[in-house]
Amino acid sequence: MAVTGIKEVARRAGVSLGTVSNVLNRPDSVAPATRRRVLDAIDELGYVRNDSARHLRAGSSRTVAIVVLDVSNPFFTDVVQGAEAVVEAAGGMLVVCNSGQDPAREGRHLATLEEQRVRGLLITPVENGRHERLERLVDRGIPVVLVDRGSGQLNRCSVAVDDVLGGRLAATHLAELGHRHIAFVGGPASIAQVADRHAGAAAALTEHGGGIELEVVETKALSVTAGRQAAEDICALPQARRPTAIFCANDLLALGVLQGLTIGGLRVPEDISLVGYDDIDFAAAAAVPLTSVGQPREQLGRTAAQLLLEEADTDAAHGHRHVVFQPQLVVRQSTAAPRRRTR
Amino acid sequence: MAVTGIKEVARRAGVSLGTVSNVLNRPDSVAPATRRRVLDAIDELGYVRNDSARHLRAGSSRTVAIVVLDVSNPFFTDVVQGAEAVVEAAGGMLVVCNSGQDPAREGRHLATLEEQRVRGLLITPVENGRHERLERLVDRGIPVVLVDRGSGQLNRCSVAVDDVLGGRLAATHLAELGHRHIAFVGGPASIAQVADRHAGAAAALTEHGGGIELEVVETKALSVTAGRQAAEDICALPQARRPTAIFCANDLLALGVLQGLTIGGLRVPEDISLVGYDDIDFAAAAAVPLTSVGQPREQLGRTAAQLLLEEADTDAAHGHRHVVFQPQLVVRQSTAAPRRRTR
DNA sequence: ACGGGCGCATGAAACGTTTCACAAGGTAGT
DNA sequence: ACTACCTTGTGAAACGTTTCATGCGCCCGT
């Protein structure tokens, strides 16, 4: 009921303002008897600290924000959960903001977060390159950690997964199964992750030799719908010109492709092999469990959060680190050796 | 750079503290020339409002929180997006908290949010019934809207979907297709949604007459894994005792069941029909597109947020409303008439 | 017995806003 | 010319904390 604060508690317990504050923040420096009295008063009054006042005084807050591209992509929800665990363990709070790939929305979020004087920021920026607003936050002393984005910048930490290697793994797997005609499905190519995964695949195939063809099918988005569409195009090809394997930049895409292929009457993996990327839970749960390139999603979030808190706690200049994880190929049932072509 | 506030801006613009505040909050009450000068000063200094101070003074904040059971369930991410849209349009910020079905975690979140003096709270509580902490928030004057939970309580608004009706729709659909032996897969039964959906199905079948059997397969969770497990059990039954249709409490479950049936060599819908619930995007994208009971997920979130803001804006006592949406059956390819039993 | 330390409690100052009562000057109405 | 009012700007108070210099009493060691 009591909407008021520490003052009322102090009066009730018959102590001074400062003492109540001490009970709250440095309980050991208060005599047990006094402490008891204060705690009782707090209970009776139903007193709850006022965070705004606390942080106004303290200057910094205990909340950390994470800005993601798409809250409904399981990849990000897992990253969020990882970060959440670390932040909460440290007594903080993680607020999740969704930019939905929209730079304007991202901007609004950053503005609000700046006003809130958040403790730190985890972000997968919508756009690459210089980011004025982000620079400002950094200048202001708010630590920023880039998530799932290699960092050209040196003035902040970053956490990422080696997408080039991921692409290599997928392509090598297909090549070793004997595929000679592979399609890469993904897009838009402006997205760094997509470009890297493709580059990795291309490099691996070149090294592997044997003139393996890597055809690119560019999609508009990394979504299930986009994948289904791409699959339709592929089904329409005459069998001779049809790839025997598909590597998707993303599991959502791969699920769409799987669906499209099924509709088009092609079986996975008998007629065509399929590799996804991210290894989201739905990949394993698909009707044909997907072979996919796994990323340590939760760990990505955890590490990012750790780096952030570390930086936030370090008073002095802190050495910015760039952690890169290794992806891992998870082989399931969507890949197999190509059938002999009818000769 | 300037870490300081309004004061410095005032000095630079050669005006008083109050004037700067007016420029920020009531620009019209300031002469254009003065306003210009102040705005310039703000720009040059890179001044950014301090939210803590503002809210300390104002008493209430502009952030609204939503506490969900599982951030990685697409159902909730859609609800969140709906709420987000409304809150952001109103100039507020939505913070997403994940209780992960854990009452303790939920409690910690609520404690923090109470300290933050959030403007309002959207929540799908982990447990039903009286909720001490929630009561406290309400007493404190923080509006609370229950999401996806019918409200026994009358001291707050709620937004829900009629789960009993949803159950009826699913069961009726199957009965009309000619199924005589149906299984309900879901659990734990303590979850209100699960119980309601089952109750609806049972009621509909009774009314439909013809002695249709409704068998219950209780699961431990509403997850893909749990569904796969349940499907294995069903596959193990001798054909004569095997249901010809399955109604799942949840799409995640249904996806798991679909996978389990496929592994077990049963085809959907030829051998067995399958109905899910929620109509998440992955349901439409499954290898066999799922018939499912759709809920207006985003609208659920939007409405909840609207109710909340409305309550927060109303000074006087406000009439608590309970909005109930109608679910809708979405028929896709996972349901069909049962094959004639081999006689 | 005396000074130094230590343990505990105090109260005022400061954090950066917003608000509010008020002042100064100008304009208009009578 | 006088009052009344409007427009624009002012500065102090208040919001609820935390922090810090200070004070008071007590014990201990010499």
UniProtKB/TrEMBL annotation, chains A, B:
The keyword Transcription regulation applies. InterPro entries: HTH_LacI, LacI/GalR-like_sensor, Lambda_DNA-bd_dom_sf, Peripla_BP_I. It holds the Pfam family LacI. Keywords: DNA-binding, Transcription, Transcription regulation. CDD domains: HTH_LacI, PBP1_LacI-like. Residues 4-58 form the HTH lacI-type domain. The keyword Ribosomal protein does not apply. GO terms for molecular function: DNA-binding transcription factor activity; transcription cis-regulatory region binding. This is LacI family transcriptional regulator. It comes from Catellatospora coxensis. The lineage of its organism: Bacteria, Bacillati, Actinomycetota, Actinomycetes, Micromonosporales.
